[in-house]
Write a structure and sequence with these properties.
By secondary structure, the protein is mostly helical. It has two helices and no strands. It has a domain of 31 residues. The termini are far apart. Its main location: membrane.
């Protein structure tokens, strides 16, 4: 017979003193390191690849057209995204909790 009783599990919370805290993800250290390495490589590729595009379009006169101005502005926005948003998202994705406070 199956009972309808709820089972309470020992769930680790990100912030144990808050009742509305999310559950903490438990991952092996090797998995966390692998995820950090992969995501850092992605961030570096994003930032430096877009910097290469920005420098190329700015340096060569043949590439300074209205169309390339749009491409350069997209590269600037991608570069800012890779340097300002992706590192915080990386920490949140790997750790499973937001440890960077209310301000960030």
């Amino acid at each position: 017979m199956i009972s309808n009783e709820t089972q309470t599990e020992n769930v680790l919370l990100c912030y144990p003193l808050r009742l509305d805290s999310c559950p903490k993800l438990l991952r092996l250290t090797v998995v966390k390191v692998a995820m950090y390495v992969l995501m850092v490589l992605m961030i570096l590729t994003t930032v430096f690849g877009n910097l290469l595009i920005i420098i190329s379009i700015s340096h060569f006169k043949q590439l300074q057209s209205p169309t390339h101005l749009i491409v350069r502005s997209l590269a600037v926005s991608d570069c800012l995204l890779g340097s300002l948003v992706m590192p915080y998202s990386m920490v949140r994705s790997v750790e499973g909790c937001w440890y960077l406070g209310d301000v960030v």
